[in-house]
């Protein structure tokens, strides 16, 4: 194909870009904890090093002179590369303290927490882990190997279960040499751990530290250097309240991080009204021959008269939100979007017509589930599956870099004719679109080759003419589903890209990856429009808000963040997950967000108030797919435990709505703590659980008529949870 | 956490020729442990994003790549590489087996088949919220759960253990109840079947045992849509029995089907309806084969039914014509399968079955047909059962068989026998069947537990009437198994006989003893396995003679050939050895008198050494020839032994032979005199 010579070039560019970018990140991150003068020196040294390396001696002299650096110091720094690195990055950890002090101090601190009043105890308990963390790093940094080991052995296991994963990573680091270029440690030291305390709890802590200043100097140092105590006015929280929001790699979200307003509503769709009138039928009739919705048209002429009225009433129920101007919706032109084309309008019309036939789901009318299973995937494993919005196409990515598109409807996949043939087509013909296609290329499935690594995600454009894919090679590719070729390669991510998603309105798309960033792109530019940095670890999933104005991302640092596409800022940081997050879904009204994590937990968040509303212990393994039904009544979840589950979201939503309208429910950030989270209600909310035969569920999709479609690859090797429990 | 020990590092270093001091190994092991852990941590991210829960080599490759390290090429494997485990000397070792691959084979091998492409299949995971029981879906209640239910009925009450999917219809009801009062109550088992299930039951039972022969195997169709989905196999028109053995959703009907089988057997044993009994047993087998069912709870119904089909006195209306033996055999197989599948230390199933069968076998009142059933039952249970329960009874059984086979039946001993004439005929048939069965099943056990040689009289003494038949069977079986291996053994043994050199110091080590032993072995093989078909002895003799006459054979080889022929007996010596004596004598002479011809032996490296070893060999050959030929000569030559005749006939060896023969004759004569002092003289 056209990319036969690509791989080499790609890997080279990745490497070089990677190196530079990483450097700039780390130098940036170094800046944060230190004050002005230190920064200046660091920068100067970096520049000096660079000049020296490139042998730009005269410039070097000039720079030195201008910067007023004393020669010897500069030289020492330049010669002893590693030492200078250490000094810059780790100076905060350098202490002369006796290593024996650490255990004693930590014990003292623990005792203090144990004896604290129950009222404050739980809030203060949140400090145990960060103090442990930084004390351990200090011990290792100062070369007390034996001490650090015994410290880890003694206090590691008593930390909360959700930190154990990080502690495992931490325990790997036993020597000072290991600390260099360690991504995980870089992250820890360059970000302060946030602990939220009530004013009272804070003063208790202050008193303790003042009293035993001499004894706990180590502790004092750690708290000052590495902890951010986010103090709020109000009553201290109880154990459950603390625990619900705990778990993130870097502590809880700061209060002010979630203060901003989020336009979570859906703006009025301008073109819906126009289409619903008379021309509807004629347009559809002309389209009927080719469309998969052909059956819809055959309802017959006798219905014709009654149709418009019926539509009107139905439409009102469906689009009631949009006809009233939602006060929470962003202004229509907040995010610039290309003008909708005729095709888009037609598509919207089809969607509306289809949606009229849909069943309203609920506990009494459960959906049927159609499941697509891939077999023979032992050689090339299936790594991702996506079903397009109208359920006519299915894309699947394999570990051997191939991408395949299957058609799920009788219409076959065709390629567009060649340019010279296209010129001969009568452009005024009614079926000009059909004529453009080359009948000889009709196939049930087509293959797209170009990536050079497992394909981790793909996404159809809303008009189904394009497909995005991202892979281990760090590239995002845009494919045309008309010519079946690659249109653009978006280079930018320097490490594997985990997910890519088209915006619901098209044109924009978001991606996230191993490089801890989320990027917002538009299809017409090969540079990202926005680059969201803030996650402390891999960003594992990304999802667009239904109004295209926001992007949500879930990460291995166990936080969910919401980013504003327009301003480029992070408007929500949601903590509470205890493991990395692998699935996200916005509710249809755009106010709530569902997220699924690696331990099988499902969480529902209120974006308006930045609250965790419910936590469902849903699955026994990673949740890979979440989907709300089209009427917003059900939530479907599926994952690695080979089980598909249906949840009664309508019931939850009703309770949420009642709560938020109740007096006292307020704007974001005014109440310091999360209201009570629903937990342990799995039995009440679970409507159905459907196990498959060793097929992990990696894609779920509700059709426009509310039929649930799932997909996954059969894997004989997967051990189903029930087997494990049986063995036990 | 696992780590690389310093020893491992040392071993790895040694494998590439570096010797590491201790502290360096320690330092390295620490570092390697850290790096490997680090890489594996990152690789788990690649694993999760590939939607797997098993790490593959690819994940490691990708991690290395992302760290700007060249991946290790050539270690890709789609499936996990099996680790072998070995322990010994107090050490435990895990390693993966690396086979040497012959490149030539690899190149010349036909190109492997292209792996089939991924396929997309679609099925209904749920229809209106209810999961249909089709092969694509897992069985509604897993086998392990059925088992757990049967072993621990209280499990459901304990919260948490009842983590299985409720059938949606009842589940909803239960949920509503729960909101009212949070009391955990064990679900009452729903005993009513849905309409579809009733229909299925009717169809299946009618098809299996109904009068309509065609339906049993032909497809049958049902009308309602739901039935079609629930019972996929019916929909696709498969056999009724196949439906029973493969449909996943039968557990609700299982109690009814089991009762059906039990009742059916009860009725049909009385009515002696062989055909129906066979079909009932096949139904039972089908249920047993169904991987989604656990029959444990219904064994109390099934085992009596199956046993009835084995040991009943009469299973058909015309016992002398119908083949009810096949049914008994089939039932016995079924019983054995059940015992294997469901025997636990708690239920002692196999023990109880064996006890029951042995009782039937020893009891006087059991009819011969019943005894047949008991025997085949025990025989199916395996070698141990045969050894412990059947073989001790062989003599007793044999006597009973003798009475039937030889005298025409004791008649009066069988209270159930209705008429003397008919009974004796049927009994005779039964006795013949039992005899065949006993011989067939006991032979393999006897072969293993009895040592060679098989003496007919011993057998007769031990097993009475059955002795000869068993002896015959066992020896045949032995011959068969051993004969199969001969093509490997004989060349090995022969090599030990005729190889030029078998030890490092041929002039000191006693390799002659090995040659003699191998010759004895070969002779024993020839005696044991020679048949007119394989012509074993002939072939061996021909081979040895050829070695003996060939000029290129070394003296030690000739020794082997001679001892081989000698061991094969007088006839061989007479026919193959004695004619060669003169020729051999000349060769020996040349070695013994002139110190070896030297030039005749191309392999001899140095004149002096060779002649010494050769001289030793020649002496050995001479002694051997004299020893082995003397007895043959003594018999085939008449008196008197004239020295010149011997010399003329046997050349160099003549005097020695003459001496030997005369001595032997004198000895035998003296012996005769001693033994019969008052006899001839």
From TrEMBL, chain A:
Question: What is the organism of origin for this protein?
Answer: Notodromas monacha
Which GO biological-process labels does this protein carry?
transcription initiation at RNA polymerase II promoter
A Gene Ontology cellular-component term: transcription factor TFIID complex
- Report what the protein is called: Transcription initiation factor TFIID subunit 5
Q: Does the keyword Transcription regulation apply?
A: yes
Q: Which CDD domains match?
A: TAF5_NTD2, WD40
InterPro entries in UniProt: LisH (IPR006594), TFIID_NTD2 (IPR007582), TFIID_NTD2_sf (IPR037264), WD40/YVTN_repeat-like_dom_sf (IPR015943), WD40_PAC1 (IPR020472), WD40_repeat_CS (IPR019775), WD40_repeat_dom_sf (IPR036322), WD40_rpt (IPR001680)
User: What coarse category fits the chief subcellular location reported for this protein?
Assistant: nucleus
The UniProt entry, under Pfam families, shows: TFIID_NTD2, WD40
* Alphabetically ordered keywords of this record: Nucleus, Repeat, Transcription, Transcription regulation, WD repeat
Oxidoreductase as a keyword of this entry, yes or no, is no
**Region described as Disordered: spans on this chain:** 19-38, 282-346
Automatic annotation (TrEMBL), chain B:
TATA box binding protein associated factor (TAF) histone-like fold domain sequence ranges: 2-65
Which keywords describe this protein according to UniProt? Nucleus, Transcription, Transcription regulation
Gene3D superfamilies with a match to the protein in the record: Histone, subunit A (1.10.20.10), TAF6, C-terminal HEAT repeat domain (1.25.40.770)
Which GO cellular component terms are attached? Answer: SAGA complex; SLIK (SAGA-like) complex; transcription factor TFIID complex
Where's it found, cell-wise?
Answer: Nucleus
Xref: InterPro entries:
ARM-type_fold (IPR016024), Histone-fold (IPR009072), TAF6 (IPR037796), TAF6_C (IPR011442), TAF6_C_sf (IPR046344), TAF_TATA-bd_Histone-like_dom (IPR004823)
Annotated region described as Disordered, given as residue ranges? 133-172
* Keyword Iron-sulfur applies: no
Pfam families assigned: TAF, TAF6_C
One Gene Ontology term of the molecular function aspect: transcription coactivator activity
One GO biological process this protein is involved in is: RNA polymerase II preinitiation complex assembly
Against SUPFAM superfamilies, the record matches this protein to: ARM repeat, Histone-fold
- Family to which the UniProt record says this protein belongs: Belongs to the TAF6 family.
Q: What is this protein called?
A: Transcription initiation factor TFIID subunit 6
- Give the organism's phylogenetic lineage: Eukaryota, Metazoa, Ecdysozoa, Arthropoda, Crustacea
